[in-house]
Structures
1.
Amino acid sequence: MRKLSSRTEFVKPTFQTSVNLDGYINIGSGTPNFSPPESVIQAFKESIDRRQLSYTSWSGLNTLKEAISRKLLKENKFLADPSAEILVTSGAQPAIFSIFLSILDEEDEVIIPAPYYSTYEEIAKICGAKVIPIKTDTSSNFTFIFEDFEKALSDKTKLVVLVSPSNPTGTVLSKGLIDKVYDKLKMLDITLITDEIYEHYIYDDHQHYSLMSEHAEKENIISIYSLSKGYGLTGIRVGYIVSNKNTIATIAPFHHAMNICAPVNAQYASIEALNLNREWFEVEMKNVIAARQMWMECLDQLSLPYGIPQGAYYICFDISQCQKPAHQVSKDLRSDHQLIINSVDDKYLRGSFMQDLDVLKSGLNRFKSYLR
C-alpha cells in the first residue's frame, strides 16, 4: 500500500457517542432524544411520493432559504437576503469545512476558546492551519476574558470561532463580550465565525445573541446554524451559513465540491420544521431542564467541579481527582460499567441531557459506582 496522507496522523475516529449500543447506557450523546412534529416527517414522505429526487440549486431550495430568512428575522432579529446571503449545507460540519477551506492557508491561525469541539481543530489541521486555544476552566464557568483573547491574536490570525451556546461547556457568551471581540476583529480585518447551532437551548436568565442583529452589513461575520439540534433532525443533514453576498459566493463552490447540495427530501422537511411555531419544543425542554438538574445534583454529591450549563445540553466537568486522564476514565466507564460518556481533553468529561430521565438516573448511578 502506498503511504497514506499525513492527515491520517491527526484525524482519527473517536468512540461515537451519537448512537446507542445494546447493553450500554449512553449519557454523553449529542443526539436529541425526541422527534419533531409529525407534519415534518410527512413533508419528507410527501416529497418522496412526488418523486422530488433530483439536485436542488447548489445553495438550496428557494422556498427553504425564504423560510430560513423568515426564521432569522423572527428569532435572531436580522434580515438575510434569501437569494444571496444564505447557503444551505449538508449539516453544520460541512458548513465548517467549507468555510475553513475557503479562508485558511498553510500556517494560518484559528483562535477558539477551549475546551472546544474537536472537529474544529481537525478541519483546521487538514487546511494546514493551527488552532490557538483561549484556555478557560470551571472557575470562570468556561468564559474567557477579553485580555486573553487579545494575547492570542497574532499576524497569523485568520479566523476566530465563538460557539455560543457552547459544545462542550454549555457556556453562553455575553453580548458585551461578543461585541468587543467583533469590534477588535473588524478593525484588524479578521473574520469571526459564530456557531449558533444550540441557539434554542438557553437556561435561567441567559440570552442568546446573534451578532448580525446589530450588524446588517454582515462584514467579517459568518454565522452557522443547523436543523439538527433544535429540531431533532440530526440524521437528515441540513444546516445553513449566513454571511454577506460576496462571502457566501466564495464559500458555495467548496460545499458544492463536497456535497453538490443538501439532501433534497431533507430540505422539504426543513421547510415544514422552520414554518412551525415552537410550542412543541417547549414540551421537550421540560425533560432537558430536568436532566440538567439531575446532572448538577449528581456532580455536587460527588464534589466534582463543573461549569453551570447556561445553554446547549451539555455539562463539562473536571475528572482530575480520579488521577487518570479523562480519556482513560471514559474507556473504563465503557468497559467496566457499560456507560458511554466521552472525554473532552485530558481533564474534562462531557455529559449530555439528551436521555430519558429514568435511563439517565441509572447511568448516573453507574457513574457514582465507578467513582466510589
Note: The chain has a mean pLDDT of 95.
2.
Amino acid sequence: MNRGLLYYLMAPLLLLLCLLQSTAASRFAVFGVKPDLVLLLIIVGALLYGPRAALVWAFIGGVGMDIFSGGPMGASSLALMAAALVASLGHRPLSRFNWVVPVGAALLGTLTYAVTYLGLLAVLDNGGWFARSVPFVDTVRAVVLPAAIYNTVLMLLLLPWLNRMPESQEL
C-alpha cells in the first residue's frame, strides 16, 4: 500500500477497526487483554504523517470507539488525541526506521491513552457526571500494563510493513 492511499483510507479504516475492536477483538485476547487496534493505527498514522493528521484521525477513531462502547462520549477522543501527540514525537526528529521509535511510541502511546482515559473517568465520576467508579491503581496494574506490553509486541510485528512505507515529509 502506498503512502498517499493510506492517508485517504485512514478514516474508513479507523471506523472499521472501531467495529472490529468492539466485536471481534476479544478473539485475539491474550490473558484477557484485547489488542487496541484503533490506538495502534493512530500511532502508525502519527509516525507516518505527523501530529496534525494524527489528531484528526484520533478524534474520528475516538468518536467511533465511544459510539460502540458504554463510556462517556468524547473521552476516547481526548485520550486518543493525547496518545497521538505523544506518538508523533517520533515523526520528524527521530526515524521510525529505528525499531526503538515505533516500539517506544506504542508503549508510551498506550500508557498515555490509558492514563488519560482513566483520569477522565475519575474526573467525571467525582463530578457526578459518570457514575461508574474505576479503581485507578488496580486497573493500571491488571489492564493497562498488560495492554501496553501486548500493543508493543503487535507494533514489533507491524515494523516490517511500517518500514516499507516511503519516507516523505509531505503528501
Note: The helical segments are 3-23, 37-49, 51-68, 75-87, 100-126, 136-164.
3.
Amino acid sequence: MRIVDIREVTAPIASSIANAYIDFSKMTLSLVAVVTDVKRDGRPVVGYGFNSNGRYGQGGLIRERFAPRLKEADPKSLLNDASDNLDPDRIWAALMKNEKPGGHGERSVAVGTTIPARASSSFAPRCAATSTAATRS
C-alpha cells in the first residue's frame, strides 16, 4: 500500500452560530483526501479527514509542510508490521520530522486531519480529536 496523493481544500463553515469567543460564520475547516494505490471495485481507496469547528482550516500547514513530507517518505516506512496497512504512529513520526517538540496546537489539527488509520477494514480517525475520516472503496 502506498499513498499516491494528498489533497486539501479549505472551506468555510458558514454556520450562523456564535459563542462568547467565536463567530463560526467566519471560520474555515480543512477537508483532506489521502489517495492510496489500493483498488477496490476498480476505484482507489481514499481516506477522508476534516477538522471540525472550533479551529480554523489548516490548509497552509498541510500543503506546505505535512503533505510534502508524507509524499517524500519511503512508502515502506509508513506501513504497519504486517505491511498490509498504513500505520498512524509511523505516519505521525514522518509528518512531525523536523518539527520542534511541544506547541502542537495547530500542528496536531493539521496532522490529525491528514492521518488515515485502520479500524476493521476501513480508515478511521486518528490523533487529534478534531479529525474524522471515512472510506470510499
Note: The domain at 3-136 is CATH 3.30.390.10 (Enolase-like; domain 1).
